[in-house]
Design brief:
By secondary structure, the protein is α/β, with parallel strands linked by helices. It has helices spanning 120-133, 147-158, 177-191, 203-209, 212-225, 228-234, 253-265, 271-282, 293-297, 317-330, 349-352, 358-365, and strands at 3-10, 14-15, 21-22, 25-32, 42-46, 72-73, 78-79, 84-88, 103-104, 109-110, 139-145, 163-169, 303-309, 336-341.
């Protein structure tokens, strides 16, 4: 599979939903497969909170593939022998697109808190500009999970003629208090960590030593990404082999898992980016600017495919079903489709249990969607 990684630089101002302006700005993106002559075979993949442009394939000298490698590639559900796939890092993130630790052109030092609050709408707008710069004006599909699903729905509302199909997976039309509460734990833990230095930390120190506050916040996130059943199956009540049951700081396997993944995470994800992106997730509301969600969804012209997971506690199935029910009422019934996947894994099933929904995506892209 052909993989190309590039950075697009834009000097025209990006007018944000807040009324502020971002200029200039960069978008890091990756492509897979070949764009056909009339540029009609493109699929835009959108990433979640801690994702990046690296959605599939392997980099040289690395053994960890892109975050949706099981779904994207030759003869996979998103078939790169047939489609040209593009995945871009959102603005505000820390993997090459302009974010809070990027240089402010006016003083050649990191923006930090001078970086504007960005929204899902802003992320989509910036990526639409990227597509235009590549001469791609019509997509076969937009596909994303979690925050990526928010972007897919936002694109369907804001740019009705952009894509033939929308796949919004494990997502919602508005972030509800349950999800905001988990993000609040992370935000407070980061802000109260002395090593965060009120946002004026040295990023090299964070890469070397991590950040306890971000690790604690990420633990809360991991809990919301799983489910009680998946934790039972994954860990049970197993204790670490070298820890004693009656040692005060002896650990269950689930505790060890949370520590290992969360502390490692802090060495590769920027804490200010985490604050800005969780803010964007928290204030996401597809109906903002409209009198109702129904009015917003009335704009949609694409075929919309909503996929939820039974045990997802972060964005419950009823949240996708609400969008589906409104779409069924507003548009021809064949324009919207809903699949609730049997799963006990939790929210992260959209990354982990690909085998449970890949056939649906493949058949829908091929025009044989299940009713």
């Amino acid at each position: 599979m052909r993989i190309e990684t590039k950075t697009a630089h834009f000097t025209n101002p990006l007018y944000l939903e807040s009324g502020r302006i971002l200029e200039p700005y960069d978008i890091r993106y990756e492509t897979y497969g070949e764009l056909n002559e009339d540029k009609s075979n493109a699929i835009w993949v959108t990433h979640a909170l801690t994702g990046s442009h690296h959605a599939a394939g392997l980099y040289e000298n690395e053994n960890k593939p892109g975050w949706w490698d099981g779904l994207i590639g030759p003869n996979k559900a998103i078939n790169t022998d047939k489609y040209f796939v593009i995945c871009s890092n959102v603005i505000g993130s820390c993997f090459g697109s302009t974010g809070p630790m990027s240089d402010d052109y006016s003083n050649h030092s990191p923006y930090r808190y001078k970086f504007p609050v960005i929204t899902i709408k802003d992320m989509v707008k910036a990526q639409r500009i990227l597509l235009d710069s590549l001469g791609i004006y019509k997509l076969e599909a937009i596909i994303g999970g979690s925050m990526g699903g928010m972007q897919a729905l936002q694109a369907a509302v804001d740019f009705p003629n952009l894509a033939n199909k929308i796949f919004a997976i494990a997502t919602t039309s508005v972030t509800r208090p349950w999800a905001i509460a988990f993000n609040k734990v992370a935000q407070e833990a980061i802000l109260e960590d002395p090593a965060f230095k009120k946002g004026y930390y040295d990023p090299e120190d964070i890469k070397a030593n991590g950040l306890v506050g971000l690790a604690v916040g990420r633990m809360a996130g991991h809990i919301s990404f799983l489910s009680p059943d998946s934790m039972d199956k994954k860990f049970g009540r197993e204790y670490k082999r070298n820890d004693g049951l009656y040692e005060l700081f002896g650990k269950f396997q689930v505790e060890s898992y949370l520590e290992y993944n969360s502390y490692n995470f802090t060495k590769w994800f920027d804490p200010l980016s985490y604050l800005y992106i969780t803010k964007a997730i928290n204030i996401f509301d597809l109906s903002r600017g409209y009198d109702s969600l129904e009015e917003a969804l009335a704009n949609v012209k694409s075929d919309v495919h909503l996929i939820s997971f039974q045990s997802d506690m972060l964005f419950e199935p009823k949240e996708s079903k609400e969008v589906y029910d409104i779409m069924q009422k507003l548009h021809p019934k064949e324009q919207s489709h809903y699949l609730n996947v049997e799963s006990s894994y939790g929210h992260d099933a959209f990354l982990v249990e690909i085998e449970k929904f890949e056939h649906y995506i493949k058949e829908a892209l091929d025009g044989r969607e299940e009713k």
